[in-house]
Specification:
This protein is mainly alpha-helical and 338 residues long. It has 14 helices and six strands. Keywords: DNA integration, DNA recombination, DNA-binding.
Length: 338
């Protein structure tokens, strides 16, 4: 509280708000009565001291204001990450100014013991929420993830051979065989394969928009793919329940992600346990359904002799991405010295 003596000899009291962002320094008059001025000063001081915003508060606002704008799969990933982030950065609540790069490093090291790659995804969402809070004036503290190296990641290098794929198909039910063939022949991600339906067939092609990138794509219904799609549609005519989805169960119900995962796991384990596949059992157990996309790209590049055709089929933005995707699986095909 500041006291100012006027020319009349009377003293007046003021609340000093300090230097503002615009350079001004406002004073709030409190009157000439010292005790009354003191009471007003106390009230203003309490209102002026605003608790520092915490990361936990920003998370809760983000969930209410921004989460619904994300895709369902993205929402699920964020919600999976938040409990881990809040346990570390909001227990006890930490103000933004109190979170430093060293704390981000500590989080990555702690989570690296059990889930190093997942930790990188969680810190990515931490950064998204922090930047969102900065844009809305919740904080102006710089993002502490800047310059912090993430845990080392190694991409998948497993290439599925024709023999390994046939071993799994030999143990698969018909709906799973159809899913494997459709995924391989289209070269699309599992989620994009599962969402394909009859209404996507236009002018002799399968039209889709990839979930991950939003890239539109048309795949000609020729050759083996054309035969497969025709057979899938024809087989559904016998079902009492008629779904528009191309991939359905024995009862005609659209194949879901959990259904596909369970059927693939069962067939893969049966193939690995088959004595005929003893030498390749380890590789069979290492296979994932998503590896079919990489196999499709590799086989397409080898058969066509042009990796750009594989790039177009996969919907990659650049051929460099496809080269990295293919070469890590099987290596570049080269000619001998002589």
């Amino acid at each position: 509280m500041r006291a100012m003596r006027k020319s009349s000899g009377k003293t007046y009291y003021y609340f000093d708000r300090g230097i503002q962002s615009d350079g001004s320094r406002p004073f709030v008059p409190l009157g000439s009565d010292y005790l009354e001025a003191l009471r007003k000063y106390a009230d203003l001081s309490i209102k002026a001291v605003k608790p520092a915003a915490t990361f936990g508060e920003a998370v809760r606002r983000f969930q209410v204001e921004a989460l619904a704008e994300r895709k369902p799969s993205t929402q699920k990933d964020i919600l999976w990450s938040l409990p881990h982030l809040l346990e570390f950065f909001d227990n006890p609540p930490a103000p933004f100014a109190g979170i430093k790069p060293v704390h981000v490093r500590a989080y990555l090291d702690r989570r690296a013991k059990t889930a190093p790659v997942r930790a990188n995804r969680e810190i990515a969402w931490f950064s998204v929420i922090w930047n969102w809070a900065r844009e809305r004036g919740i904080t102006d503290v710089p993002n502490p993830t800047a310059g912090v190296r993430r845990n080392k990641e190694t991409g998948r290098t497993h290439y599925v051979t024709d023999e390994e794929l046939e071993a799994i198909k030999a143990e698969a039910c018909q709906p799973l065989k159809d899913a494997i063939d459709l995924a391989y022949l289209t070269g699309q991600r599992p989620a994009d394969v599962l969402k394909l339906n009859e209404t996507d067939i236009r002018d002799g092609a399968l039209e889709l928009r990839q979930n991950k990138t939003g890239m539109p794509l048309r795949i000609a219904l020729t050759g083996e793919l054309g035969q497969l799609v025709s057979r899938l549609i024809e087989n559904k005519r016998s079902h009492s329940v008629r779904s528009l989805a191309l991939l359905v169960t024995e009862k005609g119900v659209a194949m879901s992600k959990p259904m596909l995962r369970r059927r693939f796991d069962i067939a893969r384990e049966a193939a690995a346990a088959n004595p005929k596949n003893k030498e390749s059992a380890i590789r069979i157990r290492a296979m994932q359904f998503r590896d079919l996309r990489a196999k499709a790209a590799t086989d397409k590049a080898d058969s066509a002799g042009d990796i750009r055709q594989a790039q177009q089929q996969l919907g990659h933005a650049s051929v460099t991405m496809t080269e990295h995707y293919v070469r890590k699986r099987r290596g570049a095909k080269v000619s001998p010295t002589k």
